[in-house]
Amino acid sequence: METASLWELVGFGPLGWGGQFARGLLLTLEIAVASYALGFGFGLLGAWAKLGRRRWLRLLGETYTVVVRALPELLLLLVLYYTGTAALTGLLEAVGLGPGIEISPFAAAVTALGFILGAYMTEVLRGAILAVPPGQMEAAKALGLHRGHAFRLVLLPQMLRYALPGLSNLWLNITKDAALVAVLGGMSELLSTGKNAAGYTKHYLFFFGVTAGLFLAITLVSMVGLGLLERRLARGLRRA
Known about the structure:
mainly alpha; MetI-like fold; 9 helices; globular
């Protein structure tokens, strides 16, 4: 009877939490994907700064990566979420766009997580760019390719091949770091849903186990997909 009642609680019936868990899982994936994409953008900018010829750019990139990687992610998330939201709201009001514009918790959380992830992306992408033989870009320049075309057609594909192991680890990390937004409130992502279900039903071990199982499912599916992607990018390479 106990097993049946637990299955009913986790199902999609009137007493079940299945719908909430499905929505929480989807929101967690949305946060992870959006933060990862934004973090990749920050990472490209950071790598460009650290590999730049201007000293102040290199100093700016170095400061960004050192500070972000030195502080706890939860502390940074709280600081960026609350102070960043307040600062952006004040800026919008100063230029005459407020107070009607309101920053959603989702956008604020994604921006904060993306900024944090970007510091780790910076080091991965910087190392991958340095691993590409410099003669590749010199050959692209000799062929008359525009700098943007050379980056997209020559540097980026090779860079991604070298960066994929590090980028894969960062994707697995962000799927778990998305749970940090539970401390912010206002969003029913996967961890918050599990916590609410456990508190409401008092079946703490069961619902936290369901939450852990869903996070594990995300990781396993991601590992399979990343493995297929790695094999695809490695096509045509001679193995030692």
